[in-house]
Amino acid sequence: MSNASSAPQHSTELPNGWEMVVGLEVHVELDTKTKLFSASPNRFGDEPNTNIDPVTLGLPGALPVLNKHAVELAIRLGLALNCTVQPSTFHRKNYFYQDMPKAYQISQYDQPINIDGFMMLPGDVRIGIERAHLEEDTGKSTHIGGTSGRIHGSDYSLVDFNRAGVPLVEIVSRPDIRNSDQARQYVAELRSILLAVGASDAKMEEGSMRCDVNVSVRKPGAEFGTRCEIKNVNSIRAVGKAIDYEARRQIDVLESGGTIRQETRHWDDSEGRTHTLRTKEDADDYRYFLEPDLVLLDPDQEWIESIRASLPMLPAARRAQLATLTGANKESESVYVIVERGQDDYVSAVAQAGGDAARALVYVQQAFAEEGATPKVAASDIATLTQMERDAKITATQAKTILSEMVANGGGDPVALAAAKGFEALDTSAVEAMVDAAIAQQADAWAKYCAGEEKAMGALVGAIMKASQGKADGKVVTAILQARRAK
Amino acid sequence: MTKPFATVVDIAADIASGKTSAVEVLEQHLARITEREGEIHAFNLVTTDQARATAQQVDADIKSGKPVGALAGVPVALKDNMCTRGIETTCSSKILEGWKPPYDATVVTRLQQAGAVMVGKTNLDEFAMGSSTENSAFGPTKNPLDTSRVPGGSSGGSAAAVAAGFAAASLGSDTGGSIRQPASLCGLVGVKPTYGLVSRQGIVAFASSLDQVGPFTHTVADAALMMEVIGGHDPLDSTSLPQPMPSLTSVLGQGVKGMRIGRLADMPDGCEPEVLARMDAAYVALQAAGATIVDISLPSLSYCLTAYYLVAPAEASSNLARYDGVRYGMRVETGDLHSMYGATRAAGFGAEVKRRIMLGTYALSAGYFDAYYGKALKVRRLIANDFAAAYEKCDVILTPTSPTVAFPLGDKTSDPLTMYLCDIFTIPTNLAGHAAMSVPFGTGAHNMPVGVQVLAPALGEQTMFRVAAELERAS
Amino acid sequence: MTTQLSGMLDHFADIDKLDLSNVAPLAQPFPLKNVFREDVVVAGLDRDEVLGAAPAAEDGRFRVPPSLGLGEQ
Hints:
The structure holds three protein chains of three kinds. By secondary structure, chain A is an alpha+beta fold. Chain A has 16 helices and 15 strands. Chain A is 38% helix and 19% strand. Chain A is elongated. Chain B is of the alpha/beta class. Chain B has 15 helices and eleven strands. Strand 2 (66-67) of chain A pairs parallel with strand 1 (36-37) of chain C, so a sheet runs across the interface.
């Protein structure tokens, strides 16, 4: 499907037995009303420089004061990632840049608030989480002039400090990820968790979740290779593409006798490649030291436990619960989709109303894509519909039609709808009679089918469905044909 | 000893009682400014119009029976590193020349709410780095008692303003002695409160874990009143102490009977003999008032200078990094961002500031952190431990504030280390975060004033002020 | 300037004599903890007032010369 030359393959297989080692650093903006260290609004999309105050602008004499709700959200996030919440300190990370109003960023260094967590991915893959710490966001620069609006070759820059000081949590995974699928799953699951605990709206397209990817390659069992950090990865899809490209780039370098330079690279999504942003030699010495304007953050056990008790059921647990209820595999796409949409409670309600849970899962996945977490269609009515199909009062196809109509109208009585459309499922003996008639009329097709041509069944099934005006259940027809052939 | 100028306490009482008016008091102070400011240069900015407007408002409020604050009508001056909304705040640096803050420091707001009349922003060593006010980008301040001599620093302008009668009181900031040393050199009371007792919000930071704001006054009673107005918890400063502000004016008459006064057993070299003589007299006076003298030792004292000159510049190098020409202040335009930073800061900062930024950057840099900044923080722990041990045996400690009286302008400018030695007695208190104040106690060489420093443990202001009041009675 | 700085650093070597192996650093004088602010908006600064004091501004934002080479963190 893809060209060999510039676009990367999406296969998870690397050539010549190489293995990739990947770690992700994800920054998330916390969903607070105000900034981390000052009381200006934390809002996306406002007019530039309208959410500013002395602390935000780094004015002389301004002092930071920590937002308690940001701490609470950081703890929620940390507990949801199975971290240990510990006493923590803030440090200054000193460097000059136009969007750094104080010329230092207040962050956490050797004593971060959350440490030693993990996330489970499908296939029982455990990705360690080294830390998830609090820090403040920078302002935003727009580069004017030049050719592409990018920094190189621009004439000047304009800086907006609305985002400066917004609370961030930086989540650093251990380098436990071994392919791009896992990386994408990690980011998607992280997003689900963040939404579930209300820590962040985690919208990559708005910058409230940002991923930096660290990639190295090695032969299995060997030491970790030199890694490169990749920035400007702005979607989950790009995470996968960037990783696959970079791993292959590094393999190419190594196999032609070169060495990997430790550096930061920029992902260019339109070109599908990375290039050097800055090398390690250019890296700043941040001269970290304890932030003298802030004091120890030491949440007591009571607070931490009350936060833990207030956490909702997390996506993994919800999926497990839905799987148990419906009999589906907890790693199946339908389970993921339903939980992602927040519709598992609805499926549960259908089951509680006497509906067939497995069928409910299918219905909701198929028809409820736009319905959100609180669908308008009454769960009891869907329960009835599942029973009608289960009891073969209507065919699967008929059920699907009724379902669409119920969703489109925001509700409806499935029994009445079936009656109005003249839907009914023929009972088995009636279907058998129709099958016999079809076999007689479509002798050629029947002969081919008996000879092993599976495709020939299509003509038979088509004829039967037409004759029955859709009242024969397709699955029943197929089963009867197969049984007849077997005789 | 009678003071040549009216005190804060008397001015406030006379205005409140109607004996005089705020406008009249202000005009007296403005007249003195007109007469001598040209030779003294205490101010970067005299805010005549705003002062008159405030004084008129105070008088109108009193006339109409409205309640007024404890400092209503009292002329005060503010060190020019304290943000005053809409009024130039330069830190005596070219890099902030012309900058008007869009907000007030907390202490400024508290003074305003108390009805004080701000007469101007006073000169300082640039960004509070210095001990003589000779590092100001706008020219030095002269000691009003002898204009061939320095007033001390870095709050030299605030000290000179009170010593010359331009203001009844002023505020300074003290990171290594910048209130106490000028107070001593100008014959004034100067207080560095316990760290966290007075808000740092709106005070342009030099060394965040050392800086504190405090008053210059003629009398201990005035200092107590000023402290009560400006002190106390501020939710806008995370390092602000949660404890309530202790009452100071009410304890001034309680005397020192039964108190134990610590005397340094091993005094550093370099004190002028007259200074030492005044110290002896101070001990005698306190003994006569019922205190006992106890010999104490601070073994880490001699290392404090080093610790301070690593910790303070380190924090300063970070605090002053924001002066980059991007958002406010001076900018030297160039073709690219990083050369703009370099050109702006090269042109905007004076030599002492540059020196300390370089020193501080070095002390924090990779590979040197443990040897310099890291070690300095450990020395800081040692001096804190030394104080803790000493305060088991005594209630306050007495030392000279400064090893010498005010020195001539230009005397110490050629070798920074010589200048740094001015702060040998004051620095330890900042490192430990304790309280200390200087009380004028007679004169020394050249008939220049000598200050005695009273040191107290954290939140020991009440004890400290009682000793200060006793010294004042005996002086 | 360099001579003065190296002179200072020589003087500061006096602390090398001390045995600091069992001494914990003291970065802040008092062990305060858990100082917080409630998550409530407080009116901030007026953009015009702030940009009026800026060395260069355009389009509601601070204007700076281009950064060469090193980009965003």
